[in-house]
Input
Amino acid sequence: MTATGIDPSAARPAPAGGVWDDVAGQEAAVAQFRRAASPEGSLAQAWLITGPPGSGRSTAARAFAATLQCETGTGCGQCRACRTTAAGTHPDVTVVATDKLSIAKEEVRALVMTAQRAPATGRHRVVIVEDADRMTAGTFNVLLKSIEEPPPSTVWMLCAPSAEDLAPTIRSRCRLVTLSVPSSEVVAELLRRRDGIDGPLADRAARAAQGHIGLALRYATQEGALAAREESARTLLGLRGTGAAVLAAQALVDRATAEAKEHSDLVAAEEKDRFLHSAGIEDGKVPPSLRSQVRQLEEDAKRRQTRLVRDVLDRYLLDAHSVLRDVLSRQLGTGAELVNIEVSAEIEQAASDGTGRITLGLLEAVQEARERISGNVPPLLAIEALLARIAVSLR
Ligand SMILES: [Zn+2]
Output
């Protein structure tokens, strides 16, 4: 600590191209991480990084890991430690990213073993769990001991939407950092700077994604994604009668399932190839001794697909929510800029046809549908009920 009590490394801005550049719109959190990583800071050994999906939790965790390993201690983005951490090849940084519904106890056991080992080349051994909220209930106890008494150079970084997603015993042992939803302006700026997206498209994609960085990039780069979003907003506001609602729900769930299956099949095929290749099998024939492992891979793929369908539908529901919020904003005359400017004519129409009270009820119904889908209600049932309600409420 310096005589003035001011931490010089925290005050010094990261050099251009540093690892913190891509942690957009999170000044307070970044300052907290950089202070902890500085020689004068106190480095907690277990961190819980929370924030809504798309706010950059795992980007922040990786930047923090790089800063801890960085040869200059700043997260310069240039040195070997920074570059290998960013590329996911640093031997002392383990990242667990899962697109499955849950993280099994065996996987957490393996992580705990990794966390026990001293770092091979870096100053720290870092274990990042991107979706810590997906650890199954029984796994928290496996993790607890390692988080309570980790070896001196081990640092755990758990990422989750909110602190409540983890067992109290775990979260009480972690230093909490909360990321906020980045503004559309910040996301647009990131797309321009990091991804080279041109100005107007970056603005439009960022606005549509409502603070979700990954989604904004998808809107900006995937052909037809923005147009499809607008089209579903039009369909939503044009729904009349329960028959149409039932058909629309079925079409939506079919589309989500197809999208999820396409992605999941691709990943599953790659995983199987990689596994067989690592077992020295080149002709694609699975010997009996490896069948159970291949079956496990296939089951993982199925779980991943289930999760993806829910994610796709949740994204749709968030979009529906933003459309209805625009309607409400017109009804209340807030004068706020519409999120869905492209369908403003339909929004104005729906606003003048209905009342704020009805729209408020529909907004609640959307949230309810999201909760039901994240619970165990079959997605089709939840979506059908929601769309039917919207269809009879919008006249
Ligand atoms: Zn560096």
Remarks:
- The chain has a mean pLDDT of 89.
- The pocket of zinc ion is lined by residues 70-72, 75-76, 78-79, 81-82 (CB under 6 Å).
- Residues 8-178 form a domain with the Rossmann fold fold (CATH 3.40.50.300).
- The two ends are 66 Å apart (CA to CA).
